[in-house]
Amino acid sequence: MFNIVVMIYETDAGAGCPSLEPDLCVPLWVKAANLFLITVYTVEVSLRLFVHRARFFGSKWNLLDLLIVSCGLLGALLSDSEAFKRVNVLRLLRVARIIRVAKVLKRFPVLMNFIGGFVGAMQAMVWGLVLILFLLVMWSLMAVQLIYPESQKLGLAEDDDCRYAFATVFRSALTFFQTLVAGDSWGACAIPIINQAPHTYPIFALALVIVQLGLTNLV
User: Fold this and answer.
1) Residue 159 above 70 pLDDT?
2) For the segment 176-200, what is each residue's pLDDT rounded down to a tens digit?
């Protein structure tokens, strides 16, 4: 838990830093805590490797700890590299330490069962997403042909997103995903276009019913 507290404080301090190098705004005690934690983890993994020898690599938790320690040591070695500072690779490597919390979950069987159920549902969610994207592309093809010409008759400003919301298949799919899946302002573009061209109403209505009310609830 102390590890998570240190990471949260370090992330907040770096995010609010006006400098191009966020590490300059991180307090000294946070840097010392990071060094202390990686030292403890390194000693712990080294002792386990010495005791278990080849059996060490047979445990996934040992491999997880080895990965965390490797990322921590790599981050410490590259701490003075300007190239790595620019792309924030060091921060990404430090985030790997949060994976260590997964070891604590083993002590809570109910929580582990819940996580197991979630992992089991991932396959259905992935295929559901694929089907949703397929349907969005299908509706987007129709939208470019039927809705985009009508949206140009509304006389919208050049900087209005609705003017080009259905200009291409990609933008149409993005608009449908934003409105039907994410539920963001469905009527902002749809209502003006429907008022201008009532024959486009079935496209919006069927897309809403099939994607939002049907498939997303099924998944």
Assistant:
1) yes
2) 999 888 888 877 888 888 988 888 8
Taking the C-alpha atoms of residue 196 and residue 201, their distance in angstroms, rounded to an integer, is 10
Q: 96-115: buried (b, 16+ CB within 10 Å) or exposed (e) per residue?
A: bbeebeeeeeeeeeeeeeee
Q: What is the pLDDT of residue 6?
A: 79
Alpha helices in the chain, H assignment, sequence order: 2-15, 28-52, 60-77, 82-86, 89-95, 102-105, 109-146, 148-151, 169-176, 187-196, 201-207, 216-218
C-alpha–C-alpha distance, residues 144 and 161, integer Å: 15
C-alpha distances in angstroms, 166 versus 142, 144, 149, 173, 201?
10, 5, 9, 8, 15
pLDDT, mean over the chain: 81
What pLDDT is recorded for position 172? 93
Question: Which token pair is 133?
Answer: 């994207």
pLDDT value, residue 46:
92
One-letter amino acid at 6 equals V
pTM of the model: 0.61
Indicate whether 19 pLDDT > 70. Answer: no
- Torsion over CA: 164, 169, 170, 172 (sign): positive
Structure tokens of 60? 């996934």
Tokens in use for 123?
């396959």
Evaluate whether 193 touches 171 at the Cβ level (below 8 Å).
Answer: no
Plot region of 26 (φ>0 → left; ψ -120 to 50 → alpha; else → beta): beta
Q: Which amino acid is at 218?
A: L
